[in-house]
Structures are given as structure tokens and as C-alpha cells.
Design goal:
The chain is of the alpha+beta class. The chain contains 9 helices and 22 strands.
Length: 492
């Protein structure tokens, strides 16, 4: 119920009560008629509001089922204002007057799409650094505590593993051409249009910076040298020297990963979350032939590599170039709580039925250490080929000795030794389990108690007096044999 409706009802109640006090029947019925009309109007307004809400809920459910993202109240309010500003005769002034700030949730949705839909950016963990300009980062990699008395030297050693990192964010601008007809489609479709434009602009530029940025007004790329000893000229970080790779065999990949497996301080670390980034044309002409093998059933297996890694195609690299490294070792920060301001732009003009707007976002990134990524030259990469190597089978073993011989828990007259072949033992048990372990896994063992053959590891039944256990070992060569004898005397 609207406040002015409630106020009007209070006024009518007062008029009715006054008419009763004054005994003015006509005034009472006149006020009462007005009250009836007001109640009817209020009910109709409430009904219309509820029906509108129901229609909006039904529409929202239908749109959600069709994959249209549902807007928050703040986003809907933003897009309605934005649409009105863009339709005005003076968009620049309208946008300035409304002070429109792109809601955080819209940019969150854009970054969610970047990290779920884009192959490379989905492997990078973006950290919202907002207004943070410096961060403390562990640069010592694998680090252990030291036992002993607390002293200044230990504290210095521990603190040497940390460094202050400059996190000054860089501006990333994207032009958004908006057709005037799009403004009439409603907030949901305007939201989808803006997010898709931002996605494409951000995806392309962020990828270019993350892979190959020179650090001068843009992120430091994976293919750049970083570290205290690197000479930066004019804000530009030098490229890494390329490593020539002609095959992706187990030996070659193993050698490459061994370089990544230690940090710049020489400390070992776990190699994980690997990506191999290549130019799309190089993927089909170089990498695909080098990582595709035919299975025994005639089908092909793509991206077959000796160690788990994801092959990602990127236009950020030139032909013949590739980057191999651990994706989680690239630090990416975004700012302004992922918000952005849309401004009218005169810098770029399109057709008359379109208007161009500019959005500014802030981000930065850099490899966490110089060993985390390798810059490769794959211009000479060769297709995979099957290699057949003839290997002479090793000669069969002639070892026919036992490594151990046990008869239940019985104690032999002398501790078992492979070179001792004859033993005695006594027992009062009716049965005992005989277990003979060959020194060579290829040898076979036969066990007899008297004239009865039993399985190795099975129980033997004793008769009163002496029982002869014969263990015959046949070597893997099939000809060499050896025999162990145990005389077991069974008594009551």
C-alpha cells in the first residue's frame, strides 16, 4: 500500500468521524463514498502490482530456462539508467549527471565467464587487489624451519625468503559500440551485450599481456625475464632466450621440466598445473602431429604427452614460439573491486545508428619467478614416430636357492641360511604350515612330506616319530635344482 493512499484513508476517516460528530448525514455519506472509491483503487493497484510481479517472475523463470542471466535489483536499476542516458541527445552529459558506476556483480560475472570459458585465463587465478599497491610474496620457495636457539641469524634467514612486490594496477580500456535499437530490448539483453563485449575485449587483451606483455604499461608476460638481476630498459622486460625443441619425447620433456622443478634459489618444488601455450597454426602444423598417436584399434589419440599438461592455443604468440610453465605461478591482480565507469567517447566513431562508449578497468600481472615458465622455439618440431628397438632377452636365472624356509612356528636346529641344506626340528603339533620363499622370483618350489606332495604355504600333517620334509627348488633356467631337507620329529 502506498503511503499517500494510507494518508488519504486517514483523511477520509477523519471526515467521516467529524460528520458523525456534527450529525451531518450528507457529509458522512459523501466521505463514505470516497472511502469506498479509495479502497477500490487501492485493491486494484495492489492487484496490478501483484500481477506485474507474477508476470515478471514467470518471465524471469522462462528467461532463466533459456540461459538468460538474471539481474540483481542494482543491475536492473543501472541498466535502466544507462539506457536512458544513452538515448538522450547529450550522452556525455547524461552519463556524467547520473554518475553511473558498473556494479561489481556485473564485472564478477564477466570474470567468471573469463575463468570458465577461456582456455588460458581459466588457468590463471585472478586476485582482487582493489587499492593494494604493495604485497609481500614468498620468494624462497621450499623453506624449512631451523632447530636451535633463537638468534638473529635464523631470523635473517627466514626473512630473506620474502619480498615486497609492486602491485600498481594498469588501465585497460575497451570501446563498446551500442546500436541504438539494442537499447529498446530491455535490461537483460543490454546486460548480455555489455558483458559479451567486455568478455571479448578483456579476454584478448589480458591474454596478450599475460603471455607476451613487455611490462611497459602492460603486464609482464610469461615469456619475459624477471628477477632482481634482470635489466629493465625503459620499463621493458627482456624476452627469455628460446630453448630449441625438435621433439616431445619423454627425455626432452623431462629435461624441460627439470628446469621448472627448481626455483631460482635452487630449491626443489612440485611440478603441477602445466600449460603448453602455442600459436593456433603451429598447433595444427607442429604440435598436433608431434602429440598424436594411432592406437592399436586404428583410432588416434591427440595431445599425448609424457607428463600431464594442457595444450592451449593463443594468438599472443608468433609462429614458431611456445611457452611451457606452471599456470598457478602467474600472478594476476584486478582493481577497483572489479567495477568500471562507462563514459561516452569521441575517440572512435562508427555508423550513425551506433554510439560508442568507453569502459576502463584495472589489472596487472607477472610471473612469480623466472623458472616458472620456459620460452621455446618449436619451429623445428618434428611429427611423432614409432621407434622399434630390438632388446636381447636376459639369460634365465640359475639361482635355485631359498631366501627363507619356515615350518609354522617351529624352531630349526640352526637359523635358516640359503647355503645350509639340512635341518631338524621337533613338534607336538598335529600339523604345521610349510612356507618356502625362493631367492629368485622366477624359480619354482615343490614340497613333499614323506611321499605326499603339498602346496607351498599349506599345512603338513605329521605322523608320530620322524617326518622328512623335502623342498626342491628349480631355477628359472629350468635345469638348475637344489634341495633342502628338514627332519621333523613329532611327539606327544
Amino acid at each position: 500500500m502506498l503511503n499517500n493512499d494510507m494518508t488519504r484513508r486517514e483523511e477520509l476517516r477523519g471526515m467521516m468521524q467529524q460528520a458523525i460528530k456534527d450529525g451531518d448525514t450528507d457529509a458522512f455519506y459523501q466521505s463514505f463514498d470516497q472511502m469506498i472509491e479509495q479502497i477500490g483503487a487501492d485493491i486494484k493497484e495492489d492487484y496490478d502490482a501483484q500481477m506485474t510481479q507474477l508476470r515478471e517472475e514467470v518471465d524471469a523463470n522462462v528467461l532463466a530456462q533459456r540461459g538468460v542471466r538474471q539481474l540483481t535489483s542494482e543491475e536492473r536499476k543501472y541498466y535502466n539508467k544507462l539506457s536512458g542516458a544513452m538515448k538522450s541527445n547529450n550522452p556525455r552529459q547524461a552519463l556524467t549527471d547520473t554518475d553511473l558506476i558498473l556494479p561489481k556483480t556485473i564485472m564478477d560475472a564477466v570474470f567468471d565467464e573469463l575463468q570458465t570459458s577461456h582456455p588460458l585465463l581459466s588457468r590463471i587465478e585472478f586476485l582482487n587487489t582493489t587499492a593494494v599497491t604493495e604485497m609481500i610474496m614468498n620468494t624462497n620457495g621450499y623453506q624449512k624451519a631451523a632447530w636451535g636457539k633463537l638468534c638473529d641469524e635464523i631470523i635473517k634467514e627466514i626473512m630473506s625468503g620474502f619480498d615486497v612486490v609492486n602491485m600498481t594496477l594498469l588501465k585497460l580500456s575497451a570501446f563498446i559500440p551500442v546500436c541504438k535499437a539494442t537499447l529498446d530490448l530491455g535490461p537483460e539483453w543490454l546486460d548480455s551485450y555489455v558483458r559479451q563485449i567486455l568478455y571479448e575485449a578483456l579476454a584478448n587483451e589480458l591474454e596478450a599481456g599475460i603471455v607476451a606483455g613487455d611490462g611497459n604499461g602492460k603486464p609482464i608476460g610469461m615469456n619475459r625475464q624477471v628477477g632482481d638481476s634482470v635489466t629493465v630498459t625503459g620499463g621493458v622486460y627482456p624476452e627469455k632466450n628460446k630453448i630449441s625443441v625438435t621433439d616431445l619425447s619423454t627425455t626432452t620433456v623431462g629435461n624441460l621440466l627439470s628446469l621448472i622443478a627448481v626455483d631460482p634459489n635452487g630449491k626443489p618444488r612440485t611440478v603441477r598445473d602445466l600449460v603448453l601455450i602455442v600459436n593456433p597454426q603451429d598447433y595444427f602444423q607442429k604440435v598436433m602431429p608431434a602429440t598424436t598417436l594411432m592406437a592399436p584399434d586404428g583410432s588416434y589419440r591427440n595431445d599425448v604427452l609424457p607428463y600431464p599438461m594442457t595444450v592451449i592455443q593463443s594468438m599472443a604468440l608468433e609462429r614458431g614460439e611456445a611457452v611451457l610453465g606452471m599456470a598457478y605461478k602467474y600472478f594476476a591482480g584486478t582493481g577497483m573491486a572489479r567495477e568500471g565507469r562507462i563514459e561516452y567517447s569521441d575517440e572512435c566513431r562508427f555508423l550513425e545508428d551506433e554510439r560508442v562508449y568507453l569502459i576502463k578497468l584495472y589489472a596487472n600481472g607477472f610471473p612469480m619467478d623466472n623458472n616458472a615458465f620456459l620460452f621455446l622455439d618449436i619451429s623445428g618440431l618434428q611429427p611423432a614416430s614409432y621407434r622399434v628397438t630390438t632388446v636381447d632377452a636376459p639369460a634365465a636365472s640359475a639361482d635355485a636357492t631359498l631366501a627363507d624356509l619356515r615350518i609354522g612356528g617351529l624352531k630349526l636346529n640352526t637359523p635358516f641360511a640359503p647355503g645350509t641344506k639340512t635341518y631338524t626340528a621337533t613338534t607336538t603339533n598335529a600339523t604345521n604350515t610349510i612356507t618356502a620363499t625362493p631367492a629368485n622370483a622366477g624359480a619354482s618350489v615343490d614340497i613333499e612330506v614323506g611321499d605326499a606332495e603339498i602346496n607351498n604355504g599349506s599345512a603338513a600333517t605329521w605322523t608320530a616319530g620322524e617326518n622328512t620334509v623335502t623342498v626342491t627348488v628349480t631355477a628359472a633356467d629350468g635345469t638348475t635344482t637344489d634341495t633342502y631337507t628338514v627332519t621333523v620329529t613329532a611327539g606327544e
